[in-house]
Each structure stands twice: as structure tokens, then as C-alpha cells.
Amino acid sequence: MVLTDRSDVRIARNSKAQEKRQNGHQEANDKENRIGDLHHDVKIIDPSELLRPEPKFAQKPVSQYRDYSIDKNDPIKERVRKTYEAMHTNQTVKFVRDKMDEWCKFNHFKATMREALEKLNELVDESDPDVNIPNIVHAFQTAERIRKDYPNDDWFQLTGLIHDAGKILAMFDEPQWSVVGDTFVVGCDWSKNIVYRDESFKNNPDAENPEYK
Length: 213
Hints:
Elements: H1 6-41, H2 75-90, H3 93-103, H4 113-119, H5 135-149, H6 154-162, H7 197-200
Helix pairs in contact: 5-6
Protein name: Inositol oxygenase
Main location: cytoplasm
InterPro entries: Inositol_oxygenase (IPR007828)
């Protein structure tokens, strides 16, 4: 049997405690270093950057937007022209009154604005000559461009985000020509500023109604 001095026991205990503290500090330092390396490797971006207007359009002259010239060899231009032709043929005073009576009862569906915007992910606007992407992307691009130019006008940014929400009617069996594109006044002579004006209204029944001249 070996007797150990109490001071030796205390020294041994203190030594082990100090070693444990040192090991703990080392583990903590190693953990901080790993976290530091992780933070160094991960790049956090603003998600809205993904939906801002593409840089490739930044230098596009304004005059090249909203090009409604006719080119039957261009599939997008033909899609746009045919959409407006159907719109200008079928949108009459009677059509507008019937649709107001049908939709202004507000009894077709209920959705939050976010749900409505997400629904637009299924819609590509057939009247738009500049984009061929789901309408929800256009909604966010519009809002982001407004936010860039008018950072303090949150109401304006919101307006840009929801300005096309009415196109959701195309998800409920309405043809696109009845909900997209540039609107125009019915029940009177059509403005000379309407796109395709000279050709597209030839088969509209209201053209023969003298009350609308």
C-alpha cells in the first residue's frame, strides 16, 4: 500500500483540470475556425437579384421595345398579332357588358394576392412582344425596377408587383385575348393609336353600328 501526500493529490487534480480547460479552449477555437471557414465559403446573395431585369436588356434602345411590326416569319410577332386580331374582333360592347355581369359578382374563386401571383407562373402573355416568360417573372421584374428607381415609394413598388393580377382570369377559361394586352374603349370610334388599328377591327360587329361612330 502506497500513501500519497494530499498536496500531491491536489496538484494532480489541478493539473488535470487545467489540461481539461486547455482542451476545451482548443476545441472551441477549432469550432470557431470551422465556422469562420464556413462563413468564408458561403456567399449570401439578395434573392431579388434573380428577378431583376436581365443585364442583357440594359443597353436595349427604348425604341426597340413594344415593336408591333408585322413579320410572319417571326413566331412571337405572329403570336402577338393574332392575339390582338382576336381581341379587336371579339371585344364588343355586348361582350364587355356580358363579362362585367359575369365577373363582377365576385363568386368564382377566392385567393390571396400571393396565391394569385403564383398562379401567374402558369401564364405566358401572348400579347407581349418583348418577353416569352411566365407572367410572375414579369411582375417581380416590374416591382424590382421600380424599387431601384424609386426606393422610397413602397406603394409604387407594390403597384408594379400586382399590376397584371387580373390576368388570372385566363386560368378560369377566359381566352387570353379577353384579359391581356392593351385595353381600349368600346362603344365609340376606335382610337388611331391602337396597335394594328387599320386592319384588326375589320370583323368587329360594332364597326357597323352607327351609334358607336
